Amino acid sequence: MHLLTETAMGDSIHFEVLSFEEAENLKKELSLLTNRINSSKRKLALEMKLQEAALSLSRLPDGKSRRDSGDSIGEMSPRSPRKRMNFFGRNSWGDHHRSDSELGISTRKCEELAQELWKLERRAAELRRRLLEHTAGVLQMTHKGLKKKPAASNNFPRNQSSVHGSLGARENGVHSGPPHDFDDRSLYRTADHLDEYGRAYGPGGMPHLLNGETRSFDLTAIHNTERKLEEMNNRLRQMLLEANLDGDVGPIPTSLYNEQSLNPVARVEAQLDYLERNLSSMANLRLQEPTEETNGIPQFVYHAEEKLEEMNMRLANILKASGSRSPLASFPTGPRRTLQEQLDYLEPNIDNIQQRVESLAEQKTILTTQIQQQRELNSKSDAERDAHFAELNEQISILKKELDMSRKEADDTRDELTLVMDQLDAARQESMIREQQRTEEEAVALSSMKEARTKAEEELSAKINMIAQLENKLQKSSDEQESRTREALAAKESSDKELQKLQSEYNELENEMIRVRTELTMAQAELDSAYGSRAERAAQVAANPAIQKEIDDLNQRNRSLTEEISILRAEQLNNSNDGDGKSGLQARVQMLEKELRDTIDDYEVMTKASIEFEKEREKLETFIDNLRDRCENLESKLCEERVQNMGSSSPSHASGFDRGASETTSIMVLKNEFKKMMRDTRAENMRLLKAEQEERRRLEILIRNLRKEQSIGKSNLSQSTISS
């Protein structure tokens, strides 16, 4: 085993070790490739079955046609046509050629699928090789030999009494094992162990943990934690018994590892509760000790501190080995670690272990749910595959039925041909019998025999002529049928062209209707923007009832046109194959065209009126702006005159010289401030007015652009309306 291990480590020393993200990407790509390979295999199997069916279909008509042609060579009369035809004047060469082309297409598809499957399998093999090299490299880096070397402990006893206490503990059978070393392989593990689930590799793929193995791994970690907690509780109980000889310490909660009915999380929580109770008892015992004994510390305190320190170190190693994500409490430093410090360090570690156990239980529940979902997905994919196979079997049965029907038709044709040949043989036999009779009666009447012979020959020629006439009639009937078919096709094409013409006219009318409706909407929007809010517009309309009546009439006509268009569409669908209703449809189209022209004329009148209203509105706005400017100038002049009057009527002359000068100065300051305020106000008003005018111009430009875009996109809008 040592030789095999060394050889494997030497071989994997140059293997590439990927990062965690690269390894996960390779695993995802391998999973996708595996799914694609499985689907390609199913497609290839299906195409091979179709190829076999096409090959069988190409063989069956070929053999039958050769057999029929061989029979017809010896049985047809010399006057029959040379080409081998069936009863309806059609040969089997077209069907045979079509089956050969289908066979070639199926063969080519099989070759393409096989090539694609080979490329996918080669890529999957490359990914598996890289993942295996990555795994071997990681194991080579983290391998520490088949046997673990005992690690030397750095935790030496602090005094001679603690040395004797530790030796006594070893003699009593309580061994404190060395702390566990940190395993570098834990860096490559995820915290929740969910990355490996949902990836099913085929034979020869990357080895991974199955669902049952992951569950056993989580349960093993829980059992190990429970066992270590039980050992720590046992040691703590012995320490309490040594420290408090008169006290009563409860028994350790027992656990049965082989009983699957018990909850491991509950067992671990019981161990943690027992550990907390004992730690609380030890803390209370430490607090109850008299202060006089602090100078002479008994030996069991050192034993308790050393055992707690050892338990804390083991807890830290357990948490590190289990891959806990929560931050660990800082280990007490210094040469003298008190019992309270050890207890303070132990409590958060116990809480961390409890959280870890709860997280493992949650992971177990999540993994169980994922396994159930994966099973449901697998059962669903199996059901889809079974349905696909059932559909293929149904298609094969349909093909078999069609093949049986073709065979039956061929047999019927052969029977009819045999019946005709039997009739011809019967006629020949009758002629031979008559010839024999004529030879027997030759002695009696040679002249009568000649007449009978000529009569038989005439009958034979008449029958042959009748057969030829029947063949000619059959040919003529087939030609007439073909001519009728061509005439029907020509009539259908002409009717289709006329229908397309009517459809195009209908589409044009509908496009025109949509354009008119769009322009009407734009006109309404312009009217809204030109004449203020809806309430103002309603007030104006109420003041002018003629406009309201005209708008209502236009809306009513628009609704009636829309209803007639829907009625026309329904009639077109019902009478698409009927040629009698075309005249009514054309009349309806003409009527709609007339109504659309009237609507367009009304819309043009409304547009002209809106343009005139817009011009009048601009004139009024210009007049209002001029009046506003004049009002502002007059207000500014009035304010200046008021300020001057205030300055002239002030009682500055009645007071002294100094007071008059100060009041004059204050009035001038106020006057200047007021002028400045008025200038700022006028500038702000002008700025707001300019901004409003620019916004109005921008909206007008936007409306013009929308009109242009609307005129450009009318065709697209009509096409979308027709398609809907």
Explain what you see.
By secondary structure, this protein is an all-alpha fold. It has four domains: 131 residues; 182 residues, no CATH class; 49 residues; 235 residues, no CATH class. The chain is 79% helix and 0% strand. Helix 4 packs across helix 7. The longest helix has 102 residues. It is flat and about 165 Å long. About 18% of the residues have low confidence. Keywords: Coiled coil, Golgi apparatus. InterPro entries: DUF7801, Uds1. This is Involucrin repeat protein. It is found in: Golgi apparatus. GO terms for molecular function: small GTPase binding.
What is the total number of structural domains? 4
Overall pLDDT level: 68
> How much of the polypeptide forms β-strand, as a percent range?
under 5%
The number of helical runs is 14
- Secondary-structure class: mainly alpha
How widely separated are the two ends? 77 Å
Order of helices and strands: HHHHHHHHHHHHHH
What are the segments in which pLDDT stays under 50 over at least 5 consecutive residues? 61-93, 145-215, 256-261, 290-296, 650-658, 717-721
Please bin the fraction of helical residues: over 70%
Q: Over all CA atoms, what is the radius of gyration?
A: 54 Å
For the report, how would you describe the main beta sheet?
A: none
Coiled coil: 222-285
Subcellular location: Golgi apparatus
Domain Up-regulated during septation protein: 1-142
Region (Disordered): 57-91, 143-184, 473-499
